[in-house]
Design brief:
Number of domains of chain B: 1
Strand order of the largest sheet of chain B: 1-2
Radius of gyration of chain A: 23 Å
Order of helices and strands of chain B: HEEHHHHHHHHHHHH
Bound molecules: adenosine-5'-triphosphate, magnesium ion
CATH architecture of one domain in chain A: Orthogonal Bundle
Oligomer: heterotrimer
Chains: A mainly alpha (274), B mainly alpha (290), C alpha+beta (334)
CATH class of chain B: Mainly Alpha
CATH topology of chain B: MetI-like fold
CATH topology of one domain in chain A: MetI-like fold
Distance between the termini of chain A: 19 Å
Strand content of chain A: under 5%
CATH superfamily of chain B: MetI-like
Number of strands of chain A: 0
Helix content of chain A: over 70%
Structural class of chain A: mainly alpha
Largest interface: A-B, 104 and 114 residues
Chain lengths: 274, 290, 334
């Protein structure tokens, strides 16, 4: 689109956009700044210049054992996503390349499971978990997160696979490829971008899931969501330490998120907006 | 490409997903339904008995129930209003020829990636805290009385936090839709003599309508389930002032150990969610046919 | 070898009977073209032969062997798709080598065959490129290359040229014909382009609603169409169909006159008409006329025949080239 824009207008728009963007980003930025302040500075009134101490990060790790929930978050989000991918890949393949009259209904039904309010099944799940000894275990929570993200994973893979022309797979079949060769040599390489996007978005969603992770864990399997939520009742001065813990909890996923803007739109709108 | 072989294979490959989701959908829901008709308290697990509709009646007559429904409604509608209107405005702004568009985008979408407990705690402690928050500092700077957000406006405070989290989502989706608007269409409208406002009303808004629908429906699904933000800020209070349905059920079930009551509430939540889901499925389903 | 026999082959999709029942004999080395209007089942028939769809009934034989239940790869056929269906993540070399790799051929042999195919198809300079970096015609050649390295007993083409522009279509048409003469392998070619059918085929199969209307050499179909459908479908511009007095006088329900079999004159003739549209193509001029007492007629004139909108022109049909059809639409033998 080649529209003529005067430099003046462009600068005006730019300033407006940057002001809005910085306002929206401000809470994150301020948490980052505060994490480098001492506790006294943190409550001493508004200031954008910290003294630059790393003490908070060290304290959070030493006193509150930050590493365990961090690892739990990594294991839960990556583990549940990979598990979901293993279950969803064949299903998405089947729906995209061998659709039947019922394919659409099955997809819609899968999506509808995502709309069940978690709180409605809180008790049964809690009781099942308790009876199976799965409460506060990584394996239990991994399966849980896998289940709640499975519909999205199937959907995303399906929308990506649907863009691969069926004729290419037929060509492979004519060329003598068996079903596995078809998947390994043709579908997988062509599907890699889609699979990677799916993986990325679901790691993000699982990392930030804050209902089941809080409900089903206490200490051993608690990921960062539960860990941070436990800061909600303050003991003593803790602004700066909270900021340090928060920064560490969101930094990795924030950076991943920046790379996943497109996938986000597609994944969360189930392909309705591209 | 449908030979009998591929069809059989397809069924086998779909089975794990379908079976898992079927179990996940049916078993807990059936249990919830069953519990909702039982007197069952986790503190006295020996005394389980049939309750008929007592749990529903109990839930229904509890004044907290109506307050929580009201709060849910206000929360969902409030956040939707802020995010959709704000989202359109910001999307239009970013779509202008600005310098550093990529970075602006990144800054704007960032809140979406902040996990709910962190978002809530940052706002609670560093922005809205009546003593040390930035807003209090700002008020003092102007010589005004700082507001004790969570005591005075608990629900509004939650709405602000949740809106901050979802504004990026709305913006991003609307921006994507906006950028798919054909440049030639815009130019044609310009040639036809439409001014900026007319172009927005007659061209941009209709083009965005689908994206707006999607934003509203998807956000509603998530907003009905807002939980962590309330847990770490107001804990539903003062009283029930910021308790939504999700939080009320959680309170009844986990804090009150009342399995029957919580289950009845859960069934009510399912019914409400289904009403929304019905519309969402229709919108998404239409897209599938294309 | 590559003779293909269809016996009683039928295909239904759910409720829809796309192919009621087809018998067809394709001899080794023949170039057979399937033509017919859109949706008549050409692709479906080709895919049945390829094994990409199951038949609903009947048998398919290749070289006398029943392959009705064989998987696509077991039939020894190669297919060139309309969209080319190249593997976008593989280089041209890997694309062409893929079927050989699937057949577990050793690398030295693969290299040799790919090299040979590339030479035949003028692709040697492009072997390391990806399909995305090729022009439409080059992509088409890669698809053909992937087919020929397998040395199939027959090639199947599904409208392979329809994505190319007119000029390139002309060149590729010649190349494929040339390839057929070199390889002498059976080829089955689906198209709805008249010119492709007429110029390339040894044998044309005219399909209509899943039924074979007529099978024959291009000239047979042109000279002695079996019925109205074939007569109308083969030849461009379309044959004129006349009913009423004129047809009756010739002892037919419908009389068919090809535009090229009508004599034109500015001053005398059997019929007189007014020009409604004149299409000047250079060598030829196609005149669309409104003929008095007859109705609209298309006629071919030489490029020099100057006529334009509104001109009065006289026409005389060549009676020796007249086609006559009875009330069932079947041709009446002379
Ligand atoms: N998988 C399918 N399911 C249901 N109907 C189908 C399927 N494939 C084809 N058909 C139907 O079968 C008929 C024949 O289709 P086919 O693709 O063979 O036509 P075609 O002659 O190749 O047409 P074209 O020239 O447009 O390619 C059409 O009416 C089509 O709608
Ligand atoms: Mg076709």
């Amino acid at each position: 689109m080649a529209r003529k824009v005067t430099t003046g207008a462009r600068i005006g728009w730019t300033i407006a956009a940057w002001v809005v963007a910085l306002l929206i980003f401000f809470p994150i930025l301020y948490a980052l700044i505060t994490s480098f302040k001492t506790e006294q500075e943190a409550i001493a009134g508004f200031s954008l210049i910290p003294s630059g101490t790393f003490e908070n990060y060290i304290t959070v790790e030493e006193q509150r054992d930050y590493f365990t929930p961090f690892m739990n978050s990594v294991i839960l989000s990556v583990g549940s996503t990979i598990l979901a991918l293993i279950v969803a890949l064949p299903a998405a393949w089947a729906m995209a390349f061998a659709p039947t009259k019922r394919t659409k209904d099955i997809l819609m039904w899968m999506l509808s499971t995502k709309m069940m309010p978690s709180v409605a099944v809180l008790l049964p799940i809690f009781i099942i978990f308790r009876n199976l000894g799965l409460l506060d275990t990584r394996i239990g929570l991994t399966v849980m997160l896998m289940l709640i993200n499975l519909p999205i994973v199937v959907w995303m893979l399906y929308t990506y696979f649907r863009e691969i022309p069926g004729e290419i797979l037929e060509a492979a079949r004519m060329d003598g490829a068996g079903i596995w060769q078809e998947i390994v040599y043709v579908l997988a390489p062509m599907g890699v971008p889609g699979i990677a996007s799916t993986l990325l978005l679901n790691v993000i969603l699982a990392w930030n899931e804050a209902f089941w992770t809080i409900q089903l864990t206490t200490t051993n399997a608690a990921p960062l969501t539960a860990f941070i939520a436990s800061f909600s009742s303050p003991q003593g001065l803790f602004w700066a330490k909270l900021s340090a813990a928060s920064t560490m909890a969101i930094a990795p996923i924030l950076i991943l998120g920046w790379f996943s803007q497109k996938q986000l739109v597609r994944g969360l709108t189930f392909g309705a907006v591209k | 490409m449908a030979t009998q072989n591929t069809k059989t294979l397809a069924r086998v490959m779909m089975a794990p997903s379908v079976i898992l989701l079927l179990i996940w959908m049916i078993v807990p829901l059936a249990m919830t339904l069953y519990y909702s008709f039982q007197n069952y308290n986790l503190l006295t697990p020996m005394n389980v008995s049939f309750a008929g509709f007592f749990n529903y009646q109990y839930f229904y007559t509890d004044p907290a129930f109506f307050q929580s429904i009201w709060n849910t409604l206000v929360l969902v509608l409030g956040v939707l209003a802020i995010t959709v209107i704000g989202g359109i405005a910001i999307a239009l702004l970013i779509d202008q020829p600005i310098f550093g568009q990529g970075i602006v985008r990144i800054l704007v979408i960032s809140p979406f990636f902040v996990m709910p407990p962190v978002a809530a705690l940052i706002w609670k402690n560093m922005i809205m805290h009546p003593g040390y928050g930035v807003l209090a500092d700002l008020a003092q700077f102007f010589g005004a009385q700082p507001i004790d957000w969570f005591a005075q406006y608990p629900l509004l405070s939650v709405i602000i936090i949740v809106a901050w989290q979802w504004l990026p989502f709305a913006t991003l989706i609307l921006l994507t839709a906006l950028q798919s608007l054909d440049g030639e269409q815009k130019e044609a409208a310009e040639m036809d003599g439409a001014n900026a406002v007319q172009r927005f009303i007659h061209l941009t808004l209709p083009h965005l309508s689908r994206a707006i629908t999607v934003v509203i429906l998807i956000q509603t699904i998530f907003l009905l389930g807002v939980y962590a933000e309330i847990l770490v800020t107001t804990n539903g209070g003062p009283g029930y002032a910021s308790t939504n349905l999700t939080f009320l059920i959680y309170r009844t079930a986990r804090l009150g150990y009342d399995v029957g009551g919580g289950a009845a509430g859960g069934i009510i939540a399912v019914v409400l969610a289904n009403i929304v889901a019905f519309f969402l499925m229709r919108a998404v389903g239409k897209n599938l046919d294309k | 070898m590559g003779s293909i026999t269809l016996k009683n082959v039928s295909k239904t999709f759910g409720e829809a009977k796309v192919i009621p029942s087809i018998d067809l004999e394709i001899n080794n080395g023949e170039f057979v073209v399937f033509v017919g209007p859109s949706g008549c089942g050409k692709s479906t028939l080709l895919r049945l032969i390829a094994g990409l769809e199951d038949v609903s009934g009947g048998h398919i034989m290749i070289d006398g062997k029943d392959v009705t239940d064989a998987a696509p790869a077991e039939r020894g056929l190669a297919m060139v798709f309309q969209s080319y269906a190249l593997y976008p993540h593989m280089s041209v070399r890997k694309n062409i080598a893929f079927p050989l790799k699937m057949a577990k051929m050793d690398q030295a042999q693969i290299d040799k065959k790919v090299g040979d195919a590339a030479r035949i198809l003028n692709l040697t300079d492009y072997l390391e490129r990806r399909p995305g970096q090729l022009s439409g015609g080059q992509r088409q050649r890669v698809a053909i290359g992937r087919a020929i390295v397998r040395e199939p007993s027959a090639f199947l083409f599904d409208e392979p040229l329809s994505n190319l522009d007119a000029a390139l279509r002309g060149t590729m048409r010649l190349e494929i014909s040339d390839l057929h003469h070199q390889l002498k392998t059976t080829m089955i070619y689906v198209t709805h382009d008249q010119i492709e059918a007429m110029t390339m085929a040894d044998k044309i199969v005219v399909l209509n609603r899943g039924n074979i209307e007529q099978v024959g050499s291009p000239l047979e179909l042109y000279k002695t169409p079996r019925n109205l459908f074939v007569a109308g479908f083969i030849g461009s511009p379309k044959m004129n169909f006349l009913e009423g007095e004129y047809a009756k006088s010739k002892g037919a329900k419908t009389a068919g006159v090809r535009p090229e079999h009508i004599g034109l004159s500015k001053d005398s003739g059997l019929w007189s008409g007014t020009v409604t549209v004149a299409e000047h193509l250079g060598a030829d001029t196609f005149l669309h006329l409104d003929v008095d007492g007859i109705g609209p007629i298309t006629a071919r004139a030489g490029g020099e025949f100057g006529a334009s909108y509104g001109d009065k022109v006289f026409l005389t049909p060549d009676d020796s080239k007249l086609h006559r059809f009875d009330d069932k639409g079947l041709a009446i033998k002379a």
